[in-house]
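RECORD TYPE: inverse folding
INPUT: structure tokens
STRUCTURE:
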């Protein structure tokens, strides 16, 4: 538990646990399907293994999660927090629109995207999406997503399979597409993203990914922000 507020108020008692740094994001990861320690680390790349272990221990002591067969599973108490976390996400999209450069992370973006692959929309067999982020320096510029057998994985090295389609352009713009600030079509029209490959694949690619639930939330942070369906 975090530092005590020493108030009987239930908000204060709840926040003694929930407002510790990273705790809500650990819960977010568990709610979006990460169950193993390694997957939680990939969804939270900037947390140290020691701190992640500490946060998981606190959640287990508070009976929000349980550890079984190498997996971390939400208890009934943890599941009751799902609509609360979703509501915070909706509020954040609606009222906090600006993204700083430090908020942009290709590893985290593609990890989130790989969880939202619509396998029914992807052709049978293996498909490889190559990402080239022109505004990212060094080795973090190139990424690959391998989709096969109703599974998907993200690689920061060439996996050696033929590339099905390439997405080239701005990390910021693809992040905005994923958040629902602009559509795939808008990002391609303004030249910030290019989709390279056979025409039928280029047209189908956006449907390979199901946008997050908050992508269509109406924005309140000024003009120039469009919906995912513009």
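DESIGNED SEQUENCE:
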């Amino acid at each position: 538990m975090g530092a005590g507020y020493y108030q009987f108020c239930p908000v204060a008692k709840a926040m003694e646990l929930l407002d510790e740094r990273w705790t809500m994001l650990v819960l977010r990861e568990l709610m979006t399907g990460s169950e193993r320690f390694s997957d939680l680390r990939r969804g939270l790349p900037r947390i140290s293994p020691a701190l992640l272990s500490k946060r998981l221990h606190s959640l287990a002591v508070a009976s929000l999660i349980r550890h079984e067969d190498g997996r971390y599973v939400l208890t009934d108490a943890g599941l009751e927090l799902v609509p609360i976390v979703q509501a915070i996400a909706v509020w954040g999209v609606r009222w906090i629109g600006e993204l700083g450069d430090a908020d942009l992370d290709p590893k985290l973006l593609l990890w989130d995207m790989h969880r939202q692959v619509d396998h029914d929309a992807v052709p049978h067999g293996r498909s490889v999406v190559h990402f080239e982020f022109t505004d990212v320096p060094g080795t973090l510029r190139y990424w690959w997503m391998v989709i096969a057998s109703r599974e998907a994985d993200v690689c920061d090295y060439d996996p050696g399979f033929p590339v099905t389609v390439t997405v080239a352009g701005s990390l910021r713009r693809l992040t905005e597409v994923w958040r629902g600030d602009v559509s795939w079509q808008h990002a391609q029209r303004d030249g910030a993203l290019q989709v390279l490959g056979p025409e039928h694949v280029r047209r189908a690619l956006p449907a390979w990914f199901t946008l997050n639930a908050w992508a269509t939330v109406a924005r309140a942070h000024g003009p120039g922000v469009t919906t995912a369906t513009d």
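NOTES: The two ends are 45 Å apart (CA to CA).
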